[in-house]
Amino acid sequence: MAIPEERVKEVGVKAGALVVGIAATDAFNEYVPAGHRPEDFLPGARSVVVAGARGPTAGAWRSPNHEVMEITGYDFRENIAVHAMADFIERELGYYAIQAPSLPTAGHQPPMSMMLAAVLAGLGTRSLAANIILHPEYGMLYYAALITTLPLHPDHLMEKEVCPAPSCVKMYERLGTTPCLRACPASAGGCLDGTIEDGRIAHSFYDRERCHSRAQTYGPGSFQKSLLAILDEDDPARRKTMLYSDFFARSVSALAFYRESVAQCFECIRVCPVGKVHRVNKK
Ligand code: SF4
Ligand code: SF4
User: Fold this and answer.
1) SS3 219
2) How far is CA 121 from each of CA 98, 145, 197, rounded to the nearest angstrom?
3) Other beta carbons within 10 Å of 74
4) What is the pLDDT at residue 109?
């Protein structure tokens, strides 16, 4: 019979994950404070199993309407894979398992970082593009994880950093920028900045607050912002127009259907060469 690592991963891949990696729970201790570690959510936890899945389809990347990316490109297969693996661990192997809490409970800070989990599970490394974790084959993936008391052998951290890609290093040497940095430069109102030395990231800057307000234009933030503007509006006719506007209606809708407010901007990744073959090249 296959070893438990292989059996768990097979269940995840069958349920829709493109990649599955395993991290040891104590690997988190070096990077995150108490309160955000796997054992804080499941006493006795030994392993974190991370599933990565594709977000937007290749077709969605081609759409001229950027909002289509948000409503047709996501199916959260990584969560389904994690649920399937957690069920397998509990029912077939007899250990405890829970989905790792990854949605923010305050501000933009999740209880557990799926980006860190993906890195510790050997699935990718941080990039200059908004710190997004790049998988060497697939580029940007969406990650979910489970925490379990099942002891599993962890995967190795990726030895070679995925970002910057060789072509980005060449571009940086020639022009002092990379495709993602050029798509959203902090110096010109964007969110990204960085430097490369000896083919590696030497410094990186990501303005998360600015990115959030640009990339996730519908959601609790936009609701609060427009509600304040509506309350401050003295002209009743204009106030009514604002109240019934498409923007406010979508902001309200995003509160009820959180899925609607995922993101609408992918420009830094659209230009990234890593995983590009999976975003284009279809007939
Ligand atoms: S998602 Fe959009 S706004 Fe955010 S860093 Fe990337 S290009 Fe800039
Ligand atoms: S375009 Fe992609 S690989 Fe190149 S520097 Fe940006 S994130 Fe890294």
Assistant:
1) coil
2) 17, 10, 26
3) 18
4) 78
Residue 9: which of 1, 18, 20, 17 has the closest Cα? 20
What residue has token string 């007939």? Answer: 283
Edge-first strand order for the sheet with 133-135 is 125-126, 133-135, 139-140
Residue 280: which residues within 8 A CB-CB, separation 6 or more?
A: 58, 61, 62
> Structure pTM?
0.85
Q: In the prediction, which pLDDT does 62 show?
A: 83
Ligand 2 contacts CB of residue 140 (under 6 A): no
Among 1-10, 56-65, 259-268, the minimum mean pLDDT is found in 259-268
Q: Tell me which residue has its CA closest to atom 2 in ligand 2.
A: 272
Cis peptide before 101 (omega within 30 of 0): no
Which residue's alpha carbon is at the smallest distance from atom 5 of ligand 2? 164
What are the domain boundaries of the chain? 4-148, 217-261
List the residue whose alpha carbon is closest to atom 6 of ligand 2: 180
- Of 131, 172, 180, 279, best ligand 2 pocket probe by most atoms within 8 Å of the beta carbon: 180
Distance 90 CA to ligand 2 centre (A): 39
What pLDDT digit, counting tens, does each position of 110-129 carry?
A: 899 999 999 999 999 999 99
Q: Provide the percentage of residues in the chain whose pLDDT is more than 90.
A: 70
For position 102, what pLDDT does the model report?
87
Per the CB < 8 A criterion, the answer to whether 20 and 13 are in contact is: yes
What is the H or E stretch that residue 71 is in? helix 66-72
Answer whether residue 106 shows pLDDT above 90.
no
